[in-house]
Structures are given as structure tokens and as C-alpha cells.
Amino acid sequence: MKLLEDRIRLEGRVLPGNVLKVDGFLNHRLDIALLDKLGEEFYHLFSEAGVTKILTVEASGIALASLAARYFKVPVVFAKKHKTSNMSREVYSAEVFSFTHNCVYNVAISSHFMDQGDRVLIIDDFLADGNAIKGLASICKQAGAEVVGAGIAVEKGFQGGGDRLREAGLRVESLAVVESMDPEKGILFR
Ligand code: 5GP
Fold first, then answer.
1. How far apart are CA 129 and CA 96, in angstroms?
2. Which of 9, 10, 69, 105 is the most buried (most CB within 10 A)?
3. CA–CA separation, 36 vs 158, rounded Å?
């Protein structure tokens, strides 16, 4: 999506360790008009998928998921992050390795908020190795819900997570796919 790519070119900063910082508009200060356009684009891509729920993970996925939900007219459930796993029957949970923080954390939702037969669109701000998406997909499986796909704002294509998920049969739609990035040479999109 050109609008998002242009904004990343303009404001994105490449940090050491393959981290792309776009916190001026995507996940710290929020450009709501831009996020609304991204949400609308997800709706165009998945409007035929019969989505009944949007699932994301706190905190940075919530704004994007919420703006998309205005178009789908479905609720957003956000998985909460914990340091330890909660094995209660009241929650569906999964372990996720965090690329940015280099640690394992737990994501969990109340079992009351995901039902068998739900058709779930997973939304997140970034896709790198694909671990967050895998954890969220595992939560859906535990609930007996079907994942219709994943809508991502920025995929770092060079980390391969998105392509591995696609090869495994998941529909992954990323609005900007970074093919390479370098503090000196800048950012190239796929
Ligand atoms: P994955 O689980 O696909 O390896 O990483 C996705 C998660 O890590 C996203 O939820 C996002 O919060 C975070 N993340 C991964 N790479 C980056 C990055 O380059 N920049 C930012 N801001 N977040 C990232």
C-alpha cells in the first residue's frame, strides 16, 4: 500500500538488530487517519471472509485492530501478555518468543470471548518471524475457532515469518513488506 510505504520511507528509522521504528504514527503516537485507511484496506481484502471477530495482541495491535473493526462491525479481542503461563480453564493461552525483547512471554484471552465457529481475522502492527501470529492462531484453535487470515501493517519479509505462514496455508495480507533495510542504504519494499 503506497500510502503506508511512503510514510515508512519518510519517518521510519532503522535501528540496530533489524528493528524498524515507526512509533511516530503506528504504535506510540497514532495517526488515526492513516490507521483508519489501513483498517479500510483490511476490510477490502477480507470483506468476503465472513469475519466474526478480530484478534490482536496488546498493546500495539489494538489501535489498528480497532479501526479495522469499525469496517467489519465485529468486536476486537486483544490477547494480554503475561510473564508466566496461566493454565486455568478460563483462558486460552500460548507461549510466544519476542523478537524485539528476546524473551518468551505468554499471551492469553478469556475463554468467554472466543467461541467455536468464530471466524477470526488476526491483526497486528508487525510481522517478523511469525511467532506472535502463531501464538494467536493457537489460541483460536484451542477455542475451536477458524482463522480466516492475518492482516499486517508492516511485514519484515527478509525475516521469512510471513512466507513460512503462507506456505503453511495461512492467508497473510501485509500492507507493506520490507525486503531489506539498512541504517545507511534505507528501506526497500517487496
Ligand atoms: P514476530 O512474532 O512476527 O517475530 O514479531 C512480531 C511482533 O514483534 C509484533 O507484535 C511487534 O510488536 C514486534 N516487532 C517485531 N519486529 C518489529 C520491528 O521491527 N519494529 C517494531 N516496532 N516491532 C516489531
1. 11
2. 69
3. 27
First-to-last CA distance in the chain? 11
pLDDT tens profile 111-131: 999 999 999 999 999 999 999
pLDDT in tens, 149-161: 999 999 999 999 9
Q: Which residues contact 160 (CB under 8 A, 6 or more apart)?
A: 129, 130
Helix (H) or strand (E) run with residue 121 in it = strand 119-127
Q: Coil, helix or strand for 179?
A: strand
From ligand 1's centre to the CA of 101, what distance in Å?
Answer: 9
pTM: 0.96
User: Cα(99) to centroid of ligand 1, in Å?
Assistant: 6
Ligand 1 atom closest to the Cα of residue 129 is: 4
Residue 4, all three cell numbers = 503506508
Q: How far apart are CA 184 and CA 162, in angstroms?
A: 25
HSE at residue 153, side-chain half, CA atoms within 13 A, is: 30
Q: Which amino acid residue places its CA nearest to atom 10 of ligand 1?
A: 126
CA distance 72 to 157: 27
**Ligand 1 centroid distance, CA of 135 (Å):** 13
